[in-house]
Amino acid sequence: EDPLLVDGHKFDIRQWVLVSDWNPVTVWLYQECYLRFALSKWSTDNFEDRLAHLCNNSVQKDDAGFEEKKDESMWEADTFRAWLQANGH
């Protein structure tokens, strides 16, 4: 497997969605998404390392350096677009 990583870190793309009605289905999307990063570098050597494979803050807060690193664990969409362009994607 060859996932797209940012500086060796796995990430999730998060999008806010509101379903305001079922009939007819009415869905509202927030215009911008954001990325949430795992604080540990991703590796296939240790699938037991939750900090490398799960990007939720509820998991990442268990990292000893979470408070110092938490601002690095989220990017706005524009930052990601710039990273993609700078890295030839």
Strand content: 15-25%
Helical proportion, percent range: 10-25%
Distance from N terminus to C terminus (CA atoms, Å) equals: 18 Å
**Structural class from helices and strands?**
alpha+beta
Mean pLDDT: 91
Number of helices: 4
Give a description of the structure.
With 89 residues, this protein is α+β, with helices and mostly antiparallel strands. Helices cover 25% and strands 25% of the residues. The protein contains 4 helices and 5 strands, in the order ββββαααβα. The chain has helices spanning 50-53, 57-60, 66-69, 77-86, and strands at residues 11-14, 17-22, 25-29, 34-37, 74-76. The protein has a 3-stranded antiparallel sheet. Strands 2-3 form a two-stranded antiparallel sheet. A hairpin with a 2-residue loop joins strand 2 (17-22) and strand 3 (25-29). The two termini are 18 Å apart. The mean pLDDT is 91.
